Each structure stands twice: as C-alpha cells, then as structure tokens.
C-alpha cells in the first residue's frame, strides 16, 4: 500500500474501530478474522454496536465478553435507551460492569421506522437521561469501580441530527450531555470536512470541551454510501456519488472510496481532531488501508495489559 503525505499533527492520535455483533456463524468467523487484524494495530478501544431497544442484546454482550476474555482489546459498549425503562437499563449497565466493561457509548437509539412512538411507560427519552443513569449506577457500585470511573462517550452530529430543529440545538444537546458527565464524543458519518470543523468551532464557543472524535467510514461502495445516507439522514457528497458511480469495477470503486476517506480524515486531523474512529462494517482491509495512507498504523504491544484503571477511551485523547 502506498503511503501518501502524513498528517501534519504530532500529538498522539487515538485510534478506534466500530464493530457490530455477528448475525450468524459465518459472519462470526469473518468478524473474528477482522478482530485479530485490528488487534494487531493496538487501537485505544473497539466499540460494539447495540440494536435500538436491545434487539441484539445477547450477541452484543457475548461479543463484549469474548473481546474482554480472548483479546487485548478494550471494548466500548454502545447502549441505547429508547423503549427501555430506567430499571431495565440499570440492570443492563450493571451486567456490563460485572463483565468488566468500563466504557459505554450512551445513545438514545433510532426511533422505530413505522412511526410509532417508542415511548413505553417510564422509558428514557434522551441520551442525556442514560448518562445520568450510568453515573447513578456507577455511584451505587463505587466499591466495584474503585479502580477507575466508567468512561462515557456520546454521539455528535457534524451535519444536523435529522430530528433536530437546528445545528445550534445539536450543540446545546452536546453541552447538556457533557454536563451530565460525558467524557468524549464520536461523530456521526460526515462527507464534508467543513461540517466537522464547524461543529468543533460552534461546540467550543458554546463551552463544549470534551474531545470530539470524527467517525469516518471507508466509502468503498456506492451502495453502502447510499444506504448509509438513508440510515443516518446525512446526504452523501454528490461528487463522491458521481465518482463511485463512474467506477468501472469494485477495485476502482474501492480506490476512489479509500482516497476520499483519507482526504476527509486528514482534513479533520489537520483541523485538530484528537483521533479517528473507523466504522469498519466488520471488515478490516479498507479501514487499515485508510490508516496506512494516513501513516497512523502502529504496532501491537503483545501481552499489553488492559488498563481498566484508566478511563479507557480518553487515554490518548486529551
Ligand atoms: P440524543 O442525544 O438523545 O438526541 C436525539 C434527538 O433528541 C436529537 O434530535 C436531539 O437534538 C434531541 N434532544 C436530545 N436531548 C434533548 C433535550 N433535552 N431536549 C430536547 N431535545 C433533545 N444507534 C443504535 O441504535 N445503535 C448503535 O449502536 C448506535 N451507535 C451509534 C454510534 C455513533 C457514533 C453515532 C453518531 C450514532 C449511533 N447510533 C446508534 C445512532 C443514534 O442512536 C441515532 O443517531 C439517534 O437518532 C440519536 O441518538 P443520540 O444518542 O444522539 O440521541
């Protein structure tokens, strides 16, 4: 893989990857191959997604357990609160802590697509409510957690959240999440570096001081980019769609996509991003190619202990 010019920052860059729980045995085999490849790059953490309303709770917990017991990786457990009561969520949080998870990405989750409200009697409405709950559970279990607090991440939106009235409102929500105890934020996918830069500028001006890590996906196929646009409500850049649409084969499409991702990530890093979070779709090759082109790959530290006494995802981020 040919490396292009490195990023201009000299500060340590936090690396992390997003994985999702496998749906069947063959997906599990692919995922574990990916995990071993990613482990060799010594990331700061890997995040594990969680279906809204806990739809994949068992497979998510199983994957988190295996990451903790069979790898040197530190997992960040996504957790959504939509459709769950505080009692149900407190039980899930306790279970995660019992298993050794020390990092949680606190999310609301997407509302059901059929338009029905997710509101069940006593369910939490916003990610901020979930942060408050995690901090309360943490306090109740302070004897267990004497080695260090739980690191809480939250979502941030370079392009407006689809339900939000304005980008200013999004920043107010991010500030509220920080005040409730969020330690860092990871962004939704974005297609224009200016959207990330604007978010940082507006957030800092409003008093948000936590690290805001750009979430980037390797744009390797037109179909995936289009699907992601629909899923997230973020419009893909027309130029990228055009270039991917003109690609003659999968190989060319992948080259175009990786280069576009590298450009986007480099622009975010040049603007001061403290790390890169890669949406891997459980595939390592394109993610590692992006990091290689950014000259951000780093060797594994064999046998390195998991530093649970540290608030994990912020270790290299501040
Ligand atoms: P919130 O911060 O609660 O915001 C939701 C909406 O409510 C926004 O429009 C916000 O402006 C508004 N709002 C928030 N607080 C208030 C308030 N106090 N008063 C008025 N309005 C308010 N989804 C999954 O189902 N599983 C996953 O694993 C998952 N992982 C993700 C990882 C990342 C990095 C990101 C960026 C998103 C992820 N999502 C995941 C998607 C996420 O659940 C959706 O974007 C969801 O619609 C909003 O989640 P949130 O945590 O940002 O919610």
UniProtKB/TrEMBL annotation:
Its cofactor is FAD. Pfam families: MTHFR (PF02219). The keyword Nucleus does not apply. This is Methylenetetrahydrofolate reductase. Belongs to the methylenetetrahydrofolate reductase family. SUPFAM superfamilies: FAD-linked oxidoreductase. CDD domains: MTHFR. The keyword Cell cycle does not apply. It catalyses: (6S)-5-methyl-5,6,7,8-tetrahydrofolate + NAD(+) = (6R)-5,10-methylene-5,6,7,8-tetrahydrofolate + NADH + H(+). Keywords: FAD, Flavoprotein, Oxidoreductase. Pathway: One-carbon metabolism; tetrahydrofolate interconversion. It comes from Arthrobacter cryoconiti.
């Amino acid at each position: 893989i040919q490396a292009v010019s490195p990023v201009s920052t000299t500060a340590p860059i936090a690396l992390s990857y997003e994985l999702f729980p496998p749906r069947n045995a063959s997906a599990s085999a692919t995922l574990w191959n990916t995990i071993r490849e990613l482990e060799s790059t010594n990331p700061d953490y890997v995040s594990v997604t969680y279906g809204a309303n806990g739809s994949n709770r068992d497979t998510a917990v199983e994957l988190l357990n295996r990451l903790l017991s069979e790898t040197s990786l530190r997992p960040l457990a996504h957790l959504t609160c939509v459709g769950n009561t505080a009692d149900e969520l407190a039980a899930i949080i306790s279970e995660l802590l019992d298993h050794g998870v020390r990092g949680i990405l606190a999310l609301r989750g997407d509302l059901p697509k059929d338009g029905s409200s997710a509101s069940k009697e006593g369910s939490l409405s916003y990610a901020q409510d979930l942060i408050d709950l995690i901090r309360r559970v943490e306090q109740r279990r302070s004897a267990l957690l004497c080695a260090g607090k739980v690191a809480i991440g939250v979502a941030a939106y370079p392009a407006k959240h689809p339900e939000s009235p304005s980008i200013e409102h999004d920043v107010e929500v991010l500030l509220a999440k920080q005040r409730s105890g969020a330690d860092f934020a990871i962004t939704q996918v974005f297609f224009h570096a200016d959207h990330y830069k604007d978010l940082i500028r507006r957030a800092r001006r409003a008093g948000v001081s936590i690290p805001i890590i750009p979430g980037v996906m390797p744009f390797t196929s037109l179909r995936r980019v289009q699907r992601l646009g629909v899923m997230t409500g973020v419009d893909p850049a027309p130029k990228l769609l055009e270039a991917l649409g003109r690609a003659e084969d999968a190989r060319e499409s992948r080259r175009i996509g990786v280069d576009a991702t590298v450009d986007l990530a480099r622009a975010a890093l040049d603007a001061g991003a403290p790390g890169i979070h890669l949406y891997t779709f459980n595939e390592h090759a394109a993610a590692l190619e992006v990091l290689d082109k950014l000259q951000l790959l780093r060797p594994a530290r064999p046998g390195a202990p998991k530093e649970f006494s540290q608030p994990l995802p912020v270790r290299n981020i501040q």
